[in-house]
Each structure stands twice: as C-alpha cells, then as structure tokens.
Amino acid sequence: MVQFSTEAKAIAEKIIRRYPEGKQKSALLPLLHLAQAEFDGWLSVETMDYVAELLSIKPIEVYEVASFYTMFNLQPVGRYLIEICQTSSCWACGAEDIIEYLEGKLQIKVGQTTPDGMFTLKTVECLGSCGTAPMFQIGDKFHENLTLEKVDGILETCKTENKRSRYC
Amino acid sequence: MLGMTKKLLLALDHIEGISKLDVYRQHGGYAVLQKALKATPESLVEEVKKSGLRGRGGAGFPTGMKWSFLAKPEGVPRYLVCNADESEPGTFKDRYLMERIPHLLIEGMIISSFALGANTSYIYVRGEYYYIIKILEKAIEEAYAAGLLGKNILGSGYDLNLYVQPGGGAYICGEETALLESLEGKRGNPRIKPPFPAVAGLWGCPTVVNNVETIAAVVPIIQMGGDEYAKIGIGKSTGTKLISASGHINKPGVYEIELGLPVEEFIYSEQYCGGIRNGKKMKAVVAGGSSVPILPTELILKTAAGEPRLMSYESLGDGGFATGTMLGSGGFIVYDEDTSIVKNLFTFARFYHHESCGQCSPCREGTGWMEKILHKFIDGHATLADIDLLWDVQSKIEGKTICPLGEAAAWPVAAAIRHFRHEFEAYVNNPAAIKQVKHYYRLNKLEVVNS
Fold first, then answer.
1. By the 8 A CB rule, do B149 and B103 touch?
2. For residue B68, what are the CA distances in angstroms to B63, B401, B448?
3. Residue A74, H or E segment
4. Of B159, B275, B403, B421, whose CB is crowded by the most CB atoms within 10 A?
C-alpha cells in the first residue's frame, strides 16, 4: 500500500488546516501535487485512492479532478519532465525550433519518454513566460530565453544530476 | 509625456532585496496598512470607489462597485480570494509583481480583507508558478512573525489568516467561479450566475475575487486617497497599468504605464518596447492578451477616425470590434511583418481547445472544430469555403456559453478573418508552397517560395 513519508504526512496535515472544518476537500489540489512529488512524478490509481482516504472523500472525486488539470500525470513520466510552451509569443520566438531540436536530440516525439526513463517531452500551453520566450519548464524551474546551445547545457546538467525533478 | 511615468506598483522593483520584509519596510512598506487599520472598513471601500480602479485581470469591472456588492449576512464568514491564476497568453505581469515585491500584494490583501470584513483570505496561484508560491509563502511567514498577519494585527483587534493555494494547470480557473470551484477541490467548471460570488462564493459564503494587480493597486489608492488616484490616467481609465510586452520587440518585459500613454510611444520609445527587433516592420498587435481582437498596424496606432490610439480602456475599445480591440489583461504581443497571422491564430485555437472545460457544447465542440479547420490551412488542405465555415463556427459560440471562454476563443478568430482575410486566401491558393515551408511563422519565406 502507498503511504506518505512522515515528512509529507506532516505537510499534508498542515495544508488541511488551512480550511474551515468540514471543508478538507479544498486540500485536494495541493495534496495531489504533494503525492506526485512523493510517488515518482505521477498519480497511480492506488495513489489517488490513498489521497481520497486522507481527505475522507470518494475516490471518484479525486479521479475527476486529477484528470481535469494538466499538471497531474496519470501515466509514469521520465525523471525529467520537459514541458515546453508552444503558444503565440513562444511560437513567434521559435518554440517549434526548440521542440524539433529536442525531438532530434532525445530521439523521441512529443508525448514520449526516452527508453532510459530520463526525459519525457510534453508540449504545454502558455506558462506566463512570454517576455522571455521561448521557454520550457522542468519541475518547478523555468528555463527561459532558450537557444539550442542553452538546451544542450540544460540536458547535460540533468544527465549529470540524474535525479527526479521535484515539484513541491 | 516622456519621462513623466508615474510608478505606483513597481516604484521599488529595482531595489535590492525588496522581496524581504525588512527592506520593504525600510522603503515605507506596511505604513499604508497602519493607516488603513485606523480607518473604518466603509471609508476604505469608499476610497477604492472614488479611485475609479477597474479590475486589472482583464474584464475591467469597477473594483469599488464589486466590493460594494458583497453581501454581509450576520454570522456568515466573508472571503477575499486573490486571483493569481495568470494564464492569459501574453500575460506575465502578476508573476513579475509577486516575484519582485510579494509584500505589496500581501499588504494589499490585508488592507482589502479588512475593508471587506474577511478574516481568512486565499491567494490562488497557478500551479506552474510553483517558485512564486514559495516566494509568497516565505513573505507570508515573515508577515506573521512581524504581527502583520494572524491575531490582533498591529494591535488593531483585527484578525486575518492568509494562505496560498496552488492550481493544477487550467486556464479556466482564471474565471472567478471556476477558481472558487477549484479552491473547493473540484474540477474548474464555471458556475451559472446568478448567484454571483458576492452573494454565494467560496463554500457558499459571500466572496470577492480580485486580480493580483488590482489588490496591489489598493495600497497606493489608500496611501494617496481615491480622488488623487483618479487624477492619474485618462478619463475613466484611472491610474497605472502593468503591461506585459512580448513578441518581436527589442525590449520585452513588464512595464508600468500611466493609462493614456500613446500606443505608438509604448511600442517605439526606448523607455518601453524599444521598437521592432531586427529592423523589421510591425504587422499586427494583440493588445490585451490572446482573447482580444488582433489589430493590424494601422489600426493599433490610430483609430479608424485617425486619432492616435492610447493605452486606455476607452481608446483601445474605440470603434468596437470592427476597428478596435480591448485593453484586457495588458498582455501586449507584437508581431513583425514576417509573422503568419493564420499560424499564430492556430496556436490560439489550439490553446482554447485545450483549455475549454467541456461544460458547454458550443465551446467544447466549437474550439475543437476551429482548431481542426485552422490545421487544414497550415497543412495546405483548406478551401475558400473553410474561411466562411470558420467564421460561421466562431459566430455560433459567442453568447452561448456559461462563461466568457467561449467569447475569448471566438473573438481572435473573428478578428483575424476580419483584418487578414487575404492571408487565409493565400494559404488556400498556395498549398504546394505551404508544404515546402519549414517554419510557417516566417511568411516572407512563403512568399519567396511562391515567386
């Protein structure tokens, strides 16, 4: 059975206290972020059921929310999830070049994960980084004003560090 | 009026360490809160009314009026929720403000919560801005430790708890009732109104939802008084506005402008965008975030009547949608002469299709249909009839949905066809050429291939 670490459990309890009594369902989004960070960057049915239990809500209430929001991954992802913006300003500043370059370099298509489980490439919609386009996000970090050389450097750093990019 | 820039929100943004409480206080931070706590809540609402401040998230609804709608039933808690779900393409000003001067937002939240009689308030930040959430949480912690939050704030007897709530990545949660649903731990499906949040908002209680910039603007308003604030700007566009400038300009970034600044000055002066990059000419501008109508150069610089276009709610709206646009969120995207309007529109259509919550059929189906038709254009398979079909689809979304996402998806399509129909025709007439072009956004390459 999945379970939060003691540390994550303490954070979860603190989050739940932000809301009035009986309104603990409001903690669902923050807890799903926490769960994703705890359990390899994605939400399995087992994980979602665990969160439902923590909040005393029905599993379906978790599934319907997890499947609605872009940031929750319902399938396993690589250690580094590269989320590249493709909306207007980023597109106009060359996002397609960056996507094409990444696909070539990682030998995968958008939506796929490298065989070694290191990188997943995903296109996303506007991340509010339009003035520093093109950009992508890995974990909680924004990589902005991207050039092909910069992309090389970022991928190298990821490979050297080789640990899951954490959000939370 | 070059060099006369009034800075009310970003006056301190260049100061080293201004995100920290002690530095913010050294520069006068929280002095306005002290003043506000000595006033009555009603008088604070009155000042905001007098200021003429309009919602800075995009809708431009008068803030003081929104506040005065708040129901005050006995024994029922009231809430203030800050909308920091900044997701309108082209907009990144709230992120800048929260990153640089988090305490300005927190000071605004405390003053506004006090004015509205809220004892618990939330800042709902889009989940992708996780590093901003950390900045805000740190600043809030500092504020608690200094007695600026929690029980008996600065000895006034007023209590306030302030929390940050992360979103999950959904543009629709910028719509205030979807935001409240999300804050309640649900899917971001907008609610049917009425009842409005002012009567039944968060957990069914009276709630005010305001944008980050709006709440931050309350600080200078209370500092100088509503009447003084109303003298800044032009006409009913009072005060200053943060503009997020992006696209093919020399100096992209966030600028605070006094409302009424000529658009031409904003684009070409060194103080702001610094002109078009690589010596290119400007082709078009989206002035207020992706949802507002795109305008060609001649109409963004001058109104149809030949008046210089100004950065204000009224001037940008001059001419209606036939020849005008909207100030919206202040997401100002500039496109150079090489940009393909059709491909750019495709990125918008893809965006709205992805972000439609799926509740209303005209939006759920219409956004997907529009993306599909536009894909035919950039793929070289469109016919001239597809232009009319696209027009027809967009015209059947507007006004037929629960929330304005439907309009937001339809307006950019209508405007692109209205002002750039010839480009759609060019795509139809040169399918072979389009297929040869690697980068669709470089339309001049398309023309080279044609010739």
1. no
2. 9, 27, 59
3. none
4. B403
What pLDDT sits at residue B444? 38
Least confident range of B2-16, B341-355, B437-451: B437-451
CA dist B148 and B139 (Å) reads 11
Examine the pLDDT at B436 and tell me if it is beyond 70: no
Contact A126 B247 (CB under 8 A): no
Do B21-231 and B238-336 have matching folds? no
- Shared-domain flag, residues A61 and A30: yes
Find the residue in A nearest to B251 (Cα). Answer: A131
Split into its structural domains, chain A has a count of: 2
Q: Judge whether A147 is closer than 8 Å to chain B, CB to CB.
A: no
pLDDT at B392: 97
DSSP B81: E
- For residue B259, how many other CB atoms are within 10 A of its CB? 23
B270 DSSP 8-state letter = T
> Has residue A72 been placed in a domain?
no
Residue with tokens 């509010």: A128
Task: Look up the domain containing A112 and give its range.
Answer: 80-161
Domain residue limits, chain B: 21-231, 238-336, 341-450
**Band of residue B450 on the pLDDT scale cut at 50, 70, 90:** very low
Say which DSSP state A161 is in: H
Residue whose C-alpha is closest to residue B413's, from B439, B387, B431, B434? B387
Grouped pLDDT means (10 residues each) for chain A, 168 residues: 93 97 97 96 97 98 98 96 96 92 97 96 97 96 95 96 80
Tell me if residue B166 falls in helix, strand or coil.
strand
Residue A166 in any domain: the answer is no
Residues of A whose CB is below 8 A from B131 = 140-142
- Give domain status of residue A167, yes or no: no
Q: Which of residues 80-99 of B touch A (CB under 8 A)?
A: 86-92, 94-95
Chain A within 8 Å of B25 (Cβ-Cβ)?
Answer: no
In the predicted structure, residue B445 carries a pLDDT above the cut 60: no
Judge residue B319's burial from the number of C-beta atoms within 10 Å of its C-beta, 0-12 exposed, 13-18 middle, 19 or more buried.
middle
- Residues of chain A positioned with their CB less than 8 A from the CB of B351: 87-88, 125-126
Determine the pLDDT at residue B437: 54
B238-336 is a CATH 3.10.20.600 domain = yes
Architecture, CATH, for domain B21-231: 3-Layer(aba) Sandwich (3.40)
pLDDT score, position B379: 86
Please give the share of chain B, as a percent, with pLDDT higher than 70.
94
Residue B82's beta-bridge partner residues? Answer: B123, B210
Q: Is B166 on the interface with A (CB under 8 A)?
A: yes
B451: pLDDT strictly greater than 60 = no
Q: Is the pLDDT of residue B356 over 50?
A: yes
Check whether B300 has a pLDDT greater than 80.
yes
Arch. (CATH architecture) of B341-450? Up-down Bundle (1.20)
Contacts of B95 in chain A (CB under 8 A): 128
